[in-house]
Every structure is written in C-alpha cells, then in structure tokens.
Write a structure and sequence with these properties.
The structure is a single chain. The protein is mostly helical. It has helices at about 20-40, 45-75, 85-115, 135-155, 160-190, 200-230, 240-265. Helix 1 (about 20-40) runs antiparallel to helix 2. The termini are far apart.
C-alpha cells in the first residue's frame, strides 16, 4: 500500500494486514458452526466450529484493533493531530454503520410483528410464561449504563480523566452484568422447555434477544478497549473519537433493548 506520509491527500490509507481476512475466516466458521448446531448431529461438531470460529474472530479483532491503534499513534492521531477530512470520514463511517445496524434489527422486529399479527394466540399455548422480572432488572442495568457512559463522555470533555475512566469501567462492567442476567434467563427458559426450536416463537425470541446480547458483548469489548487506551493517555478532550463512537454504539444498544423490553416482554 502507498505510504500515507508521501500522499498528496489527507485520507488515511492503512497498510496491508492479515487480520481482516482472518476475522472473516473466524466469522465464517462461527456461522457454519451455528448452522451445524441447528441442523446436524452430533451437535458437538457444530459446537466445536462455533468455539473455534469465535476464538479466531476475537483474537483477530483484538490484533486488528491493536494494529490500528499503533498506526494511529505513529501518525500522532492520539495527540489531537487528526486532519479534518479524516475526522469527518470516521464520523460518517460510524453513522453509516449504526444505520446498517438499525436496518438489521428492523428486519427482526418486522418478523416479530408479522408473526404476532398472524397468530391468534401469542405466545402459543405450549410456551411457558416468560417472567418479566429478569428483563426488568436487565433494563435497569442498561439504562444505568447509558447514564454512566454519558458521565464518562462529559468527564472526558472537561478533562477529568480519572472520572472518565471510572465511569467507562462502570459502563462495560454493567454490560457484563447484563449478559450474566440474560444467560441466567436463558437457562431458566430452557429448563422450562422454551428453546430455540420451540416453534416460531422460540426462534424469533432467541434470535432477536440473542443478537442484541451479542451487540452488548461487542459494545462491552469496545468500551474495554477504550478504557485501556484512556489509561494509556491516548485521548484528549479534543480528540477521542474512538471513545465517542463506542458511546454512540452503546446508546444504540440501549434504545434497541427498550424496544425489545416493551414489545417482546411487556406488551
């Protein structure tokens, strides 16, 4: 790839890297493993592929993030030297990414509303009642995390680094607690006989809530990385877009969960 120092423009052109294709490989194995888990026996083969694919994806993503962080630091981007065109490109890129995620969840909500409108009894009679107390607790956890990430951003803008680090740590910690509550809820529902194969209700319930849980996991990892970089002193009050992008993403995850809680659990 061309060396950005000698380019006649301000766009950032990253050097060649092995980690993006390795991430794709891991994601592919994860997807095929999930398909194998659903449709083929013994399930251990699909489960094994999911574990291997998940580990490869996580390892490659972390290496990719570290490589991009080192590259940005070498160009002085962590010290307030980001060109305007690069800053705009980052912001538009994150906005378009979140818009694509809105479309992703819109498809699941549309499927849910369609199935609910065309079934005279919802949930079906053979489905055990889904308790609302655990989702209520999860809602309180995520709403609190939305407040802590806002606190962290405001603290960073006012140059209160220690407060920003504390609030960021609280935010991803609440995300991890949310995932624990969701795992406990899933274990309870499976024990009651409500699984992924429990008809259309089981399928859409676990797909829409499970994908949201995956996004909470992804957002928590992003905030963990931002927390680590904050401790290193990478961010300034004027230049901290990675943290800001992670905060945008976290607020999006919060909004999606409010919709899930209202339409899937309450109404």
């Amino acid at each position: 790839m061309a060396n950005n120092h000698h380019a006649d423009h301000e766009f950032y052109i990253p050097a060649g890297s092995i980690w993006p294709p390795v991430s794709c490989l891991g994601a592919g194995l994860l997807a095929f493993g999930f398909i194998g888990h659903l449709h083929f026996q013994p399930a251990i083969i699909g489960n094994g592929l999911m574990v291997v694919g998940g580990l490869i994806t996580l390892m490659a993503a972390l290496q990719w993030f570290a490589e991009m962080t080192r590259s940005a630091g070498a160009r002085g981007y962590g010290k307030g030297m980001v060109p305007l065109v690069q800053d705009l490109a980052q912001r538009y890129g994150m906005i378009f990414f979140i818009v694509s995620e809105v479309m992703f969840f819109s498809a699941f909500f549309a499927a849910y509303f369609f199935l609910r409108a065309h079934n005279p009894e919802w949930p079906p009679a053979n489905i055990a009642e889904i308790p609302v107390h655990l989702p209520m607790l999860a809602t309180l956890i995520l709403l609190t995390s939305g407040a802590t990430i806002t606190w962290a951003h405001h603290a960073l803008l006012t140059n209160r680094r220690q407060a920003a680090m504390t609030a960021t740590g609280l935010t991803w910690g609440l995300g991890v607690i949310f995932l624990g509550v969701q795992a406990y809820e899933y274990a309870h529902l499976v024990h009651e006989g409500v699984g992924l194969t429990s008809g259309v209700f089981g399928s859409i319930f676990y797909m829409i809530t499970g994908f949201h849980g995956f996004h909470v996991l992804l957002g928590s990892l992003m905030l963990m990385w931002a927390h680590w970089r904050m401790k290193k002193g990478d961010y300034t009050r004027h230049n901290h877009f990675y943290f800001e992008a992670a905060a945008w993403y976290w607020h999006f995850v919060d909004v999606v969960w409010i919709g899930l809680f209202l339409f899937v659990y309450v109404l």
